[in-house]
């Protein structure tokens, strides 16, 4: 219920390859409960499980795990075979090298490379030759390889830097969910930088856990935003304990053993505010319940601390561009 929702931009971007291939995906969207109204509203959000199903549906419809963005299709099942080839390696370095070797066997596959830079490791991606106007394949591959590596060793790999070979895109504000680290744009190559200590870590997964992992991955890896260890993420986890009774900023600052002024400054440095965090969490919890028949609109409003449904209605439309009723109608 407290998972972060996905911006409608990513659903529109994911459909770009299908449009390029001339695929009629209207039936697929209807099946996923994604209305054209929601897709066309820039402020709208979709639930993570919806996004997972959309990606999986597009793979099958296009017969391509690159969703029409690569120089050549990647047959569904390629990612799974790569994982099976890597799962028995003794450490993360061997597993990543074997995975990259697997994809290098396909002449038109995206080129990824792993190289050491003193105490750091850079996973770089050559995305210069693709048809990828919204950078969807670049973002997806970097996210998938980072989260696959984290899953293999059973702990989140802390990113030190994410670099991109293009200017900051319009949806750059969403990057903190994908790459919770310092960002660099207009770089020579798109890449991720992390500490080399992770490479020596043993794999904690096996064939049994891989089978369960592959039921929803790599689509699931894309749809689960990385909370990271930022102050914003810590506050979100704290606030989500009881959405109806929010602690005020002063109480939160006391809980964190810092002054309210310091809390405000740190949040400002992360590009957000206490009120914005509360609104985002309320929005995401509302979207969760609107996609289910468990609560009425009045009950959702009460659970989120609104004094009356009309206040919830106005706030939700301000957050997403759509009314709660319109969201529920297209979800159910």
UniProtKB/TrEMBL annotation:
Residues 233-330 form the HTH araC/xylS-type domain. The keyword DNA-binding applies. GO terms for molecular function: DNA-binding transcription factor activity; transcription cis-regulatory region binding. GO terms for cellular component: cytosol. PROSITE patterns: HTH_ARAC_FAMILY_2 (PS01124). InterPro entries: AraC-type_N (IPR032687), Homeodomain-like_sf (IPR009057), HTH_AraC (IPR018060), Tscrpt_reg_AraC-type_HTH (IPR020449). It comes from the Bacteria. Keywords: DNA-binding, Transcription, Transcription regulation. This is AraC family transcriptional regulator. It comes from Pseudomonas koreensis.
């Amino acid at each position: 219920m407290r998972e972060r929702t996905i911006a409608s931009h990513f659903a529109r971007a994911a459909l770009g390859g299908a449009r390029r291939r001339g695929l009629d995906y209207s039936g697929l969207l209807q099946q996923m409960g994604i209305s054209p109204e929601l897709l066309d509203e820039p402020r709208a959000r979709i639930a993570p499980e919806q996004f997972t199903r959309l990606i999986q549906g597009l793979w099958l419809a296009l017969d391509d795990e690159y969703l029409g963005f690569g120089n050549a299709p990647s047959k569904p099942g390629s990612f799974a075979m790569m994982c099976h080839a890597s799962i028995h390696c003794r450490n993360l370095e061997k597993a990543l090298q074997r995975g990259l070797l697997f994809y290098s066997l396909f002449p038109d596959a995206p080129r990824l490379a792993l190289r050491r830079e003193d105490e750091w490791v850079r996973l770089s991606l050559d995305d210069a030759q693709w048809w990828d106007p919204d950078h969807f394949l670049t973002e997806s591959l970097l996210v998938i390889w980072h989260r696959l590596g984290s899953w293999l060793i059973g702990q989140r790999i802390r990113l030190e830097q994410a670099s991109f070979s293009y200017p900051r895109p319009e949806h750059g504000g969403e990057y903190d969910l994908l790459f919770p680290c310092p960002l660099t744009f207009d770089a020579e190559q798109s890449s991720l930088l992390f500490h080399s200590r992770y490479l020596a870590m043993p794999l904690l997964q096996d064939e049994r856990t891989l089978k369960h992992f592959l039921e929803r991955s790599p689509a699931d890896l894309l749809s689960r935003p990385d909370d990271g260890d930022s102050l914003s993420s810590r506050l979100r986890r704290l606030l989500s304990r009881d959405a109806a009774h929010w602690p005020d900023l002063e109480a939160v600052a006391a809980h964190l053993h810092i002054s309210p002024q310091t809390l405000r400054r740190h949040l400002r440095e992360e590009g957000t505010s206490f009120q914005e965090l509360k609104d985002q969490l309320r929005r995401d919890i509302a979207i969760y319940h609107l996609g289910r028949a468990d609560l009425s609109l009045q009950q959702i409003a009460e659970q989120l601390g609104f004094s009356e449904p009309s206040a919830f209605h106005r706030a939700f439309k301000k957050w997403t561009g759509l009314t709660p009723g319109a969201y529920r109608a297209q979800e159910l």
